[in-house]
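Thread amino acids onto this structure.
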């Protein structure tokens, strides 16, 4: 994974599970190899990295693991909601939990969707396509 972005082709992923990172990266690559997925395994580092990106190079999509070290996906969204520069970027929370409470809390914060992580490889492609449906090109 590289850290060079293109304004409309960059997806930033907050995920600490290497298998989920690789499966999602492969799915996006299969759909359209011009998408670049940058994975950051820690909530605080995710926000710090995002803050270093110039406005013209901001990601087209943010995917946030609900349960990630230091700041959860929901805590990341709360922090990003305080900054106008991030409001137009679609945010997706994904989690191993299908809890209606977690989903409702996430949607209430304005995320585009709350997705339960798939248990089979084939579903990663379907989910990646669904995630890309929120990107405004």
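Threaded sequence (137 positions):
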């Amino acid at each position: 994974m590289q850290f060079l972005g293109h304004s409309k082709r960059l997806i930033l992923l907050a995920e600490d599970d290497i298998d989920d990172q690789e499966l999602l990266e492969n799915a996006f690559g299969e759909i359209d190899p011009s998408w670049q997925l940058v994975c950051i395994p820690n909530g605080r580092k995710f926000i710090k990295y995002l803050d270093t990106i110039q406005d013209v190079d901001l990601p087209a999509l943010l995917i946030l693991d609900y349960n990630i070290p230091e700041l959860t996906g929901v805590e990341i969204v709360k922090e990003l909601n305080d900054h106008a520069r991030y409001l137009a970027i679609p945010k997706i929370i994904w989690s191993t939990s299908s809890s209606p409470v977690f989903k409702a809390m996430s949607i209430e914060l304005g995320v585009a969707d709350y997705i339960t992580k798939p248990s089979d490889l084939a579903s990663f492609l379907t989910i990646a396509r669904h995630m890309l449906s929120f990107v405004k090109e």
